[in-house]
Design goal:
Strand order of the largest sheet: 1-11-10-9-12-13
CATH topology of the largest domain: Rossmann fold
CATH superfamily of the largest domain: Nitrogenase molybdenum iron protein domain
Distance between the termini: 79 Å
Largest sheet: 6 strands, parallel
Helix content: 40-55%
CATH class of the largest domain: Alpha Beta
Shape: globular
CATH architecture of the largest domain: 3-Layer(aba) Sandwich
Mean pLDDT: 92
Radius of gyration: 25 Å
Strand content: 15-25%
Low-confidence stretches: none
Number of domains: 3
Length: about 425
């Protein structure tokens, strides 16, 4: 992992690269993705079975696409009792947090002869994509499904790639605890197509949420408009701001916690001490040796990571805001003071005893967060993402008459005489 000092040429180039990063350039892969989406739209379940065998090397019968309720119940017996209790605890904490943040149930305004109201309605059906490749993520199931259920979504569907040994029991238990209605053994682009367009087995949804590989990400981008999306996410990111107050072992461990996700993950340390930077780098090497996913983490740290040395914490915070990371750790002596300067970040972790990992699992706030600099304008997945607002208006005759002339002026200016006639006819 390279150490770059402020003022050096490499420092500036690295920062410019961070600011210009994008989720994925779809041009190279888009043709393949479009082809699969077209095929799913045309052939439905037949295409799902074809691509599942092609990409996942598993041949399914049509009756095996959807998991049976008995299989989900059986999954509770397949995981250790203590982990089952942990899943329940996480489910409870995530549900409690999202209920607290559910927001107001609409607004109402009344004046003479006029009633204006805004009501909040849940989406009817939501699809959650759960990856099934390099790792199993029951935490993501909880984070995606619980706020949807709290919002009042009528039906929640999961699609996840089939596995030779069966779907992870922890994923199934998490889905059960979160209130998921149906689970389908389909992954990849074909799953996104099925959720967007519907097939004989999988109903069309209103919104797709959840992470996936670059093909899944591009597919989500291409079906947007047919359905809504949570976000178009990129690789995991962490920026840690640290002074010499933090043990370098803590910082190294937190950088690795994100680097082990993906070779394209972005781990960055910003520190005010060159000596601390060197000690943190040495700790990284020490901890990597004992890591099961060493190759993935090492590649991420070498190709995408950096340790940036700055003059003071104000400069560190300025850089963090320019990067706008998914996760921002303030591992400094006075984190609350520094937190006041945060402008752009998906989630912020204050102090040396708040590692990003606790936010991934049990803190309560959502871990589905904006990446690739989109924290400049985007937020964590929330209850509001599964709701829509509908405006209601009611005028009596007297109130409408008060606005007749105003409507006429607008319609004359815009050349829409039929608009005015719809008011005029009521006034005669």
């Amino acid at each position: 992992m390279k150490i770059l000092k402020i003022g050096e040429k490499g420092f500036k180039q690295y920062l410019l690269g961070m600011e210009r990063r994008i989720v994925e350039d779809p041009s190279r892969l888009e043709a393949d993705v479009r082809s699969i989406l077209r095929d799913v739209r045309k052939r439905g379940d037949e295409a799902l079975l074809h691509y599942t065998e092609r990409f996942d090397q598993i041949r399914l019968l049509p009756s095996q696409l959807e998991l049976k309720k008995e299989e989900i119940k059986e999954a509770h017996k397949k995981i250790p009792t203590d982990f089952l209790e942990t899943l329940k605890k996480a489910s409870h904490r995530i549900r409690r947090f999202h209920r607290m943040t559910k927001g107001r149930r609409g607004v109402e305004s009344i004046e003479k002869g006029i009633r204006i109201e805004q009501v909040v309605k849940p989406l009817a059906r939501v699809g959650i994509y759960v990856p099934g490749g390099k790792a199993s993520y029951p935490s993501t199931v909880l984070m995606a499904a619980i706020p949807a259920r709290v919002a009042g979504v009528e039906e929640i569907i999961i699609t996840t790639p089939p596995q030779p040994e069966g779907i992870s029991p922890a994923v199934l238990v998490a889905a059960d605890l979160a209130g998921v209605d149906r689970i389908f053994c389909v992954g990849g682009v074909q799953a996104i197509g099925a959720l967007a367009y519907g097939t004989e087995s999988i109903p069309k949804v209103d919104k797709i949420v959840g992470p996936g590989n670059r093909y899944v990400t591009i597919a989500k981008r291409l079906v947007y408009g047919t359905v809504d999306l949570d976000m178009v996410a990129g690789p995991s990111e962490i920026v840690i701001i640290s002074d010499e107050y933090t043990p370098p072992a803590y910082v190294a461990a937190d950088l690795i916690s994100q680097a082990e996700h993906d070779e394209r993950a972005l781990p960055v340390l910003i520190t005010t001490s060159e000596d601390f930077a060197k000690r943190a780098k040495a700790e990284l090497e020490k901890q990597l040796i004992a890591l099961g996913r060493e190759k993935i983490a090492r590649k991420s740290l070498i190709q995408r990571g950096a340790i940036l040395v700055v003059n003071n914490l104000d400069q560190a915070m300025e850089l963090a805001n320019r990067i706008a990371p998914e996760h921002l750790e303030l591992c400094v002596k006075h984190p609350k003071r520094l937190a006041k300067s945060v402008k752009h970040a998906g989630a912020v972790f204050l102090g040396i005893h708040t590692p990003e990992a606790i936010g991934d699992y049990l803190a309560g706030p959502n871990h589905i967060l904006p990446t690739a600099g989109t924290a400049r304008y985007a937020s964590a997945l929330a209850v509001e993402d599964f709701q829509k607002k509908i405006n209601l208006m009611e005028f009596n005759e007297e109130a409408l008459r008060r606005f007749e002339a105003d409507v006429k002026r607008f319609t004359e200016w815009e050349g829409l005489e039929g608009h005015y006639r719809s008011v005029e006819i009521r006034m005669k």
